[in-house]
Design a protein that fits this description.
Elements (H helix, E strand, L loop, with lengths): L1 E5 L2 H7 L6 E11 L2 E11 L8 H6 L2 H7 L6 E10 L2 H7 L6 E10 L5 E10 L15 H4 L12
Antiparallel strand pairs: 1-2, 2-3, 3-6, 4-5, 5-6
Length: 155
């Protein structure tokens, strides 16, 4: 389904939007080998002026549609995690409740730092593989550690 909504608080924060900003919300259920493979919910700022049809979203992922529409994405962050399937997720993905799901949250930005897309995707653990390619292992970029937030409580 595709609809325009007021951005949920966490989506507005991720996309760097005001609290009352409007976004396009697109929920899709991808299939593979005749069964559900992934449930994805994408949020795109209404200010981009882009609307995609249900058919377009079934044929291509939002990321590819944005690229084809000329949206210039510059950087982003992606966070994988895992949690048990809720009853709703289990129903959509045709799995037993509490089956482990891989959750991926991704937010993309343009060169000016404006949010372009925020995605929440979930996949049954046995239908998804995640691979990271490493390169330039001796270069500065790979060896730098990212800053981590300070713990809320002293250790």
């Amino acid at each position: 389904s595709v609809r325009t909504i007021t951005a949920p608080e966490q989506v507005a924060a991720a996309l760097r939007l005001s609290k009352r900003a409007r976004v396009y919300r697109a929920a899709t259920l991808a299939t593979r080998n005749g069964g559900p493979f992934a449930h994805t919910v994408s949020y795109v700022p209404e200010t981009l002026g882009l609307v995609f049809t249900r058919v377009q979203l079934q044929e291509k992922p939002m990321l590819l549609l944005l690229d084809e529409a000329g949206v210039e994405m510059d950087h982003g962050a992606q966070f994988p995690g895992a949690r048990p399937a809720s009853p709703d997720s289990a129903f959509l993905l045709e799995i037993p409740p509490k089956t482990p799901l891989v959750h991926i949250y991704r937010t993309l930005y343009d060169k000016r730092g404006h949010g372009v897309e925020h995605v929440a995707a979930q996949f049954p653990w046995n239908r998804y593989e995640y691979e990271i390619q490493l390169s330039d292992l001796h270069g500065e970029k790979v060896l730098r550690r990212s800053k981590r937030p300070k713990p809320l409580l002293p250790r």
